[in-house]
Write a structure and sequence with these properties.
Blueprint (H helix, E strand, L loop, with lengths): L3 E7 L16 E2 L2 E2 H10 L6 E6 L13 E4 L4 H10 L5 E6 L7 H10 L5 E7 L4 E5 L1 E6 L5 E3 L3 E4 H10 L7 H7 L5 E4 L11 H13 L2 E13 L3 E4 L2 E4 L3 E2 L7 H14 L4 H4 L13 H13 L2 E11 L9 H12 L6 E6 L5 H4 L3 E12 L1
Parallel strand pairs: 1-4, 1-6, 4-5, 7-12, 17-18
Antiparallel strand pairs: 2-3, 6-11, 7-10, 7-11, 8-9, 13-16, 13-19, 14-15, 17-19
Length: about 375
C-alpha cells in the first residue's frame, strides 16, 4: 500500500477571527483549532504521517503537537512546499488548519480517488444564483460547472512537488498549482460541515455543527465455541498453546467474533453470518481478522470512528492474563485504533454451565462508534 501523509498548513498569522491570536491557536469547544485538525488525520487509518507547517514564531510549539513539523514560508505556496519536502510519503493530502471539522468519510473519498488519479480534491457544486456587481448588481453569472473548493486536496507527492517547484506565482490553492502544471484533478464530493474558520462568527457556527452532528452508536456481540481436538486456541488474534482447540467454521476466535458482531450491531448491519455465510465454503477455516477488518472498514465507510471496544472472555482455561497485552495490540492494529482503546479481560463462571465444565469458551463484547 502506498504511504499517505497529511500536510496541515498552519503558518498563517491572520487575526480576522478575533481572540488576539492566529485562528489555528484559538480554542474551539475547549480544544485548539489546530489540535482538532491534527486529531482528525492522526486518527485516520489511511494516514501514515502528519506534517504540520508552522510559522517560524510558532516552531517552538512543535514538541507538544506529536507530529512532524516544518517551518513555513512567506506565502501559502512556500509553506506547502516546505511540507512536501518534510515527508517521503508516496501520496499527500494538503489541508488547511482552519478546517477542523473534516470528517473521516471525506478523507476516505480523497484517498480512494488517489488510487486511480494523480490528484483529487473535494468540492461542492454551486446551487445559488450568482451575480456580478459592486454595491449594485451589474449582471448575472452562469453557475453551470462551478464548485466551491475545499481541502484536503490529495496528490501523488512527486507530481505535486514538481508542480510547486515549477510554479511562477503564488496560487489560491494546490489544485491551481496542479492545473498550471498540466495535472488532472478529480472532484470528489465535499461536505457542507467542512467549513473554513475565517471570521469570529465561524467559531460559533463550528461549535453548533459539532453538537449537531455527533452520533454515538453502541453495539454488543456474543459468541460461543466448543472445545475439540487441537493443540492451540485463537483468542483475540493471539495463538495460545493448549491441549485442545476451539471448533468452528472459521478459526473459531470467539473473542474476535464477539467484537466483530458488536461493531456490526452498532452499525445496524447484522452479524458475521450475514457478511460471511457459514454455508459458503470459501470461509471454511478463515482467519477471523478478515471479519474484523471488514467490520472496521464498514464503520469507516459509513462515517464512523471506532471509539473503543471491550471484550470479556468467559472460560476456566486457558489462562488469558499473560496474553492480554498481546491481544489488545493485535485487535488495535486490525481496528486502526490505539491499544488503550481496546479492553480484553477474562472471568470464570464459577464452575457453572458449559464454560464451568470446561466444554468451551464464551465471549461478550461492546463497541462504541462515534460519527467521524
Amino acid at each position: 500500500m502506498p504511504e499517505t501523509a497529511a500536510i496541515i498548513v498552519a503558518a498563517g498569522r491572520g487575526l480576522r477571527a478575533g481572540g488576539g491570536v492566529p485562528k489555528q491557536w484559538r480554542d474551539l469547544a475547549g480544544v485548539p483549532v489546530l489540535e482538532r485538525t491534527i486529531n482528525a488525520f492522526a486518527a485516520h487509518p489511511m494516514i501514515d504521517e502528519v506534517v504540520v507547517v508552522l510559522h517560524p514564531d510558532d516552531i517552538n510549539r512543535c514538541a507538544t503537537l506529536g507530529v512532524v513539523c516544518a517551518t513555513g514560508g512567506a506565502t501559502r505556496q512556500a509553506s506547502v512546499l516546505a511540507g512536501l519536502l518534510a515527508t517521503q510519503a508516496d501520496r499527500v493530502l494538503i489541508h488547511d488548519a482552519a478546517r477542523p471539522l473534516v470528517r473521516a468519510s471525506l478523507i476516505n473519498r480523497v484517498c480512494m480517488a488517489l488510487d486511480s488519479h494523480v490528484g483529487a480534491a473535494p468540492a461542492i457544486a454551486v446551487t445559488d444564483a450568482l451575480w456580478r456587481g459592486d454595491a449594485m448588481v451589474t449582471g448575472l453569472q452562469d453557475r453551470t460547472g462551478l464548485y466551491r473548493a475545499q481541502t484536503p486536496q490529495g496528490f501523488d507527492r512527486a507530481a505535486i512537488l514538481a508542480a510547486h517547484r515549477a510554479a511562477l506565482s503564488d496560487a489560491a490553492d494546490d489544485v491551481a498549482v496542479a492545473l498550471a502544471a498540466g495535472l488532472d484533478v478529480a472532484i470528489v464530493a465535499g461536505d457542507e460541515d467542512n467549513i473554513k474558520i475565517t471570521h469570529a462568527d465561524d467559531f460559533a457556527r463550528a461549535a453548533q455543527l459539532m453538537e449537531r452532528r455527533m452520533d454515538v452508536r453502541l453495539g454488543n456481540g456474543y459468541d460461543v465455541h466448543r472445545f475439540g481436538p487441537g493443540d492451540h486456541v485463537m483468542l483475540c488474534g493471539v495463538k495460545l498453546p493448549f491441549d485442545r482447540g476451539l471448533q468452528g467454521h472459521s478459526d473459531a476466535d470467539v473473542g474476535m467474533h464477539a467484537v466483530t458482531d458488536a461493531i456490526y450491531g452498532a452499525l445496524g448491519q447484522g452479524d458475521i453470518g450475514v457478511h460471511f455465510p457459514p454455508t459458503d465454503p470459501q470461509w471454511k477455516g478463515a482467519e477471523s481478522h478478515i471479519f474484523l477488518r471488514h467490520a472496521a472498514q464498514m464503520a469507516r465507510d459509513m462515517g464512523f470512528a471506532i471509539s473503543n471496544v471491550d471484550c470479556t472472555l468467559v472460560c476456566e482455561y486457558p489462562k488469558v492474563g499473560p496474553h492480554q497485552a498481546a491481544m489488545r495490540a493485535a485487535m488495535a492494529e486490525i481496528l486502526g485504533i490505539a491499544p488503550d482503546r481496546v479492553s480484553v479481560k477474562a472471568t470464570t463462571s464459577e464452575r457453572l454451565g458449559f464454560t464451568g465444565r470446561g466444554e468451551g469458551i464464551a465471549a461478550l463484547a461492546t463497541a462504541a462508534l462515534v460519527s467521524a
